[in-house]
Amino acid sequence: MVVYESYFGCTQQVAEAIGAGLTCYGTVHVLPVAQARGMRAIDVDLLVVGGPTHAHAMTSAHSRESAVDRGADGVSAEAPAYGLREWFDEIEQGAGPAAAFDTRIDASALMTGRASKGIAHRLRRHGFHLVAEPESFLVSHDTLLPDEAARARSWAEGLGRIIVQTPASVR
What we know:
The protein is of the alpha/beta class.
């Protein structure tokens, strides 16, 4: 399962590329965070979670409102109230493999921050174990940089290989 939060479409593109990279390993569900509400993330072989980097971290209610003010596509008036932070508050404890990703401006992580670090922290806190270091995919303003979708797909293929090579008893 790939769960993502996206406001300008970049993170959605990355999530879909990750989903495509995992399809050769089984059925993949790629869901925006609002649609993942109430889903049992503990029932999946691999949970991949990602979101945009806003103000050096995961989105917040304030940063989501700002995204709407900046003209984010496809965001209803209700959307800013629910994001990854709220989703993590609702999900059950897990025990399976997981991975975290983000999208961020193409600049030093020291300057931009990385939402994937906070996502990884929350995954661990919920009992999941990371099978890869958190990954960032780069954007320029509200556009995914060239080759980032292909890089996301390749990253996901690597995640799939890790899962296939890990005995179920260890997962």
